[in-house]
Specification:
This protein has about 240 residues and is of the alpha/beta class. The protein has one domain: Metallo-dependent phosphatases (Purple Acid Phosphatase, chain A, domain 2, 4-Layer Sandwich). Helix content is about 30%, strand content about 20%. The chain contains eight helices and twelve strands. Strands 3-2-1-11-12-9 form a six-stranded mixed β-sheet. Helix 7 runs antiparallel to helix 8.
């Protein structure tokens, strides 16, 4: 089975539409979304509805649950907090109800999914370092776990609990007896110094992961954000991929 896995759209409709268009060429059997439909960007309702209609699995991210009062957002930086408050005002009741129904983890089709990390997923921890990877090893219930949250695409390969290999290849064949945490990157706000939308395709028959980068109409997204008076910092960072 071939699965398209994507994460962290953050209300960026132009990026999401471009990624869905690219997915059609890949012809996946299913689409898994790893959370953070909303926050930061100018089109929360449109993104919620498009993802809901076109995805087989949808997880909740911290921004999604913060927008409906189901997780703390006091730690958000001022830019994230301002955009969150704007998002709350804009979201329809139907879309708020949908976000409330989502969970931050799932196990399906032989893989584990989590927005942030396998370990304590509702605490929104990041998997950045080798120590983070070691801490998460015992929480892996499947050999392959896909995550988002950091907006940085990366593959973590475990030979065992203490032998961990970070991989930044865009194409990787997974070893059958090893475990993996694989970050799908971000569709709507990449932070790996590449402004193109990012998602991945996983083919479980050949155990292959391939990352896809997709151009989108960045200027249009930025114009919408400016019109909505969203923080200037959020507008500029899209062009910088950070």
């Amino acid at each position: 089975m071939k699965v398209a896995i994507f994460s962290d759209v953050h209300s960026n409709l132009e990026a999401l539409e471009a990624v869905f268009k690219d997915m059609k060429r890949e012809e996946p059997d299913k689409k898994f979304f790893l959370g953070d439909l909303v926050g930061y960007g100018p089109n929360p309702n449109e993104c919620v509805e498009l993802i809901r209609e076109n995805s087989d699995v949808v997880l909740a991210g911290n921004h999604d649950l913060a927008a409906v009062g189901l997780t703390d957002h006091s730690y958000f930086n001022p830019y994230a907090r301002d955009s969150l408050l704007w998002t709350i005002e804009l979201l329809t009741d139907a879309n708020k109800d949908y976000l409330k129904s989502l969970k931050p983890t799932a196990v399906t089709d032989g893989v584990q999914l989590s927005h942030s990390s396998p370990l304590a997923p509702d605490e929104w921890r990041y998997v950045h370092s080798l120590q983070d990877a070691m801490d998460n090893y015992d929480s892996l219930v499947k050999n392959v776990c896909f995550i988002g949250h950091s907006h940085i695409p990366m593959i973590i390969e475990y030979a065992d609990a203490s032998n961990i290999i970070p991989i930044h290849d865009i194409y990787k064949t997974l070893e059958p007896k090893r475990k993996y945490i694989i970050n799908a990157g971000s569709v709507g706000q990449p932070r790996d110094s590449n402004r193109e939308a990012c998602y991945l395709v996983y083919d479980d028959k050949i155990r292959n992961v391939s990352y896809r980068r997709v151009e989108y109409d960045l200027a249009r997204t930025q114009k919408k954000m400016t019109k909505a008076k969203l923080p200037e910092h959020l507008i500029k960072r899209l062009a910088e991929g950070r």
